[in-house]
Amino acid sequence: MNLRRWLITLSVCLLVLAALAGIKYQQIRAAIALGESFPEPSASVETQRVARSLAASHVAIIGEIVAPESLELRNELEGRVSAVAMTPGSRVRRGDVLLQFDISEEQARLEAAKASAALAALNLKRLQQLLSNNSVSRDRVDQARAESDIALANVRQLEATIGKKTLRAPFDAVVGLHDIEAGEYLAANTAIVMLMGVNDFLWVDFNLPLAQASVDVGATVEVFVAGHADDALKARVIARNSAVSPQSRNLRYRARLDAVPGIPPGSVVNLRVPTGERSVIRVPTPALLHDDMGSYVFVLAADEAGEGYRARRRPVQPGEEDANLAAVLAGLEDGETIATHGAFKLRDGMRALVRERAPRAAGQGAAE
Fold it and tell me: How far apart are alpha carbons 234 and 257 in whole angstroms?
């Protein structure tokens, strides 16, 4: 009797499950039919047939502003400072005295040397007159001439020493910061002050790897300085090093830039350096998309099942990019059609419909 009840219960459960499965099956079929009744998802985009062209290639690097004339002033001889004639931040002219060492001893010795030289010159002149009368030997005259030359050399030596203890500006310059005071004793080869030349131009030094070191002397580079106008400054390449750096294996270049107020030597600037021409494909900037997987475009192929196109994601190697155009270095071939404006709406395999951009009304561009 118990077995019969269990069989009846099991039969009822199976009938209930079969009924529920049938109901669910009908619901799934109804949902599928409803989904098939909707049109396939699609997006309207603008298209462009791409073509290769030659374009100038550039590389963005960092450069350094260098003064054409700059010098760390040092003293050759030791001594005590007697006068400081330079003010930090002031402008000096070539030949101006900047620092004077004590030369009282050298001046006294110079006066004695000048007197000895004058006496030797008079003695030589007198002996030359006696030689004309054969009243003295030629050897005596030669000895007097040598004594006169030695006396003059002593004078020049003392004058040179005084000159070395009188530090003058080697060129028109702006004096840097210093803390030298009169009465201070300085050892030889002491760093005294930095002199920065006053010129109407500056130098811009930069390094390029050998793979990109094809810049010719005379080429123009663009210089971008922080805090100045967005327009790039123009600098002309005037020289390049004859050998690569043994540390970085880069080749060093130097460009000439017209002096701009507010750009002190030592400043770091951004450069845009031309490195020749290469074949690229230029596309509208909205056509080039980016995500975590890299840069890509949507290539459109004719949809065999109907009208329109099928979008296929294509990874590409991007180049330079601005607000209007982007360069594609690899990944596209001549004659392929890509989605441009509206490409962000596409997904791989999605149907794409081509639309034409509405023409701009007359005067609309000026008003925008």
Answer: 7
Q: 150, 23, 32, 172: which is closest to 91 by C-alpha?
A: 172
Q: Is the dihedral of CA 161, 165, 170, 172 positive or negative?
A: negative
227, 86 contact by CB (below 8 A): no
Rounded to whole angstroms, the Cα distance separating 88 from 132 reads: 62
How confident is the model at residue 331, as a pLDDT?
A: 87
At 346, the pLDDT band (50, 70, 90 cuts) reads confident
CB–CB of 208/216 below 8 Å? no
- Residue that the structure tokens 């020049």 belong to: 156
CA distance 44 to 343: 9
β-pair partners for 312: 299
Q: What is the pLDDT of residue 155?
A: 93
Q: Check residue 364 and give its pLDDT.
A: 42
Measured distance CA(341)–CA(188) in Å, rounded = 72
Mapped onto helix, strand or coil, the DSSP state of residue 188 is: coil
Q: Is the dihedral of CA 71, 75, 81, 82 positive or negative?
A: negative
DSSP state of 127: H
With tokens 């008079």, the residue in question is 122
Instruction: Report the percent of the chain where pLDDT is more than 90.
Output: 39
The DSSP code sequence of 263-291 is --TT-EEEEEEEEEEEEEEEEEGGG-EEE
- Report how far residue 271's alpha carbon sits from residue 134's, in angstroms, rounded to the nearest whole number: 81
Give strand pairing partners of 204. 65, 255
Confidence of residue 345 (pLDDT cuts 50, 70, 90): confident
Q: CA separation (Å) from 181 to 73, 127, 189?
A: 15, 52, 17
Q: Which helix (H) or strand (E) holds 70?
A: strand 70-74
Helix (H, G, I), strand (E, B), or coil: what is residue 316?
Answer: coil
Pairing of strands 42-45, 351-354: parallel
Q: ∠ CA(85), CA(83), CA(113), 5° rounding?
A: 115
The answer to whether 354 touches 308, Cβ cutoff 8 Å, is yes
Q: What are phi and psi of 272, to 5 degrees?
A: -125, 105
pLDDT tens for residues 36-68?
Answer: 555 677 788 888 898 888 777 778 889 999 999
